[in-house]
Design goal:
Length: 211
């Protein structure tokens, strides 16, 4: 048997060929160590009472502006019920000039869901002018059902806007790294729907979603 056939039969790659392996986000690694023991068995319930936690990385940026984040939700089982959704993203500190122009020492950060017809505010938070780093914002379960249905799954498009307390728009540096410690994530906290309930539900009812 030729070496190439031997490698193929055993599912091995050619010697010397490096293959990039996807690294799990640090948030998911930390969460795993919190709820599972060294053998991999779950020992604590997940956040929000969830039994399934899914992390989605950002979809390709293409020509979208920096304020836009897109996530394609796929691989969800029909038996999953969305309990809560968290948006994790990293931002830099405002420039010195921007901080001096603030009437207060805080500014407002808002997250909108971008749809076909209009934008709706999902959440808002007041941020200290000198702060930077990770933001973890709860978006609620309805954000999934409001996404755009595609053949590959459901597309969730979010826009982050910063403004002064009086409403004047502020430019802010948002990070879109595809890998590494500043990778934006959309985290879904799900539970399993009982089989009897699943058969009784229509396509959409409450927070039940069939993708």
């Amino acid at each position: 048997m030729a070496p190439s056939q031997f490698l193929k039969a055993f599912g091995l790659s050619d010697p010397g060929v490096r293959r990039w392996q996807s690294e799990p986000p640090q948030y998911m690694l930390n969460l795993y160590t919190q709820v599972a023991d060294s053998s991999g068995l779950t020992r604590l319930p997940g956040p929000y009472g969830s039994s399934i936690i899914r992390a989605y990385s950002e979809k390709g940026k293409a020509s979208d502006p920096d304020s836009i984040f897109s996530f394609l939700l796929n691989e969800m089982s029909l038996e999953e019920d969305v309990l809560e959704v968290e948006f994790h993203f990293y931002h830099s500190r405002l420039t010195k000039e921007q901080r001096h122009n603030l009437q207060e020492n805080i500014y407002k950060l808002e997250v909108y869901q971008v749809g076909e017809l209009k934008q709706q505010v999902l959440t808002k938070q007041h941020i200290a002018a000198h702060s930077s780093g990770w933001r973890v914002l709860r978006l609620g379960q309805r954000v999934v059902a409001s996404g755009t249905k595609l053949q590959e799954g459901r597309l969730i498009t979010l826009e982050v806007k910063a403004s002064t307390l009086s409403g004047r728009r502020l430019p802010i540096v948002l990070h879109h790294e595809a890998r590494g410690s500043r990778q934006p994530l959309l985290i879904l906290f799900n539970s399993l729907i009982p089989t009897t309930t699943l058969h009784a539900l229509p396509r959409f009812q409450g927070n039940y979603l069939r993708i």
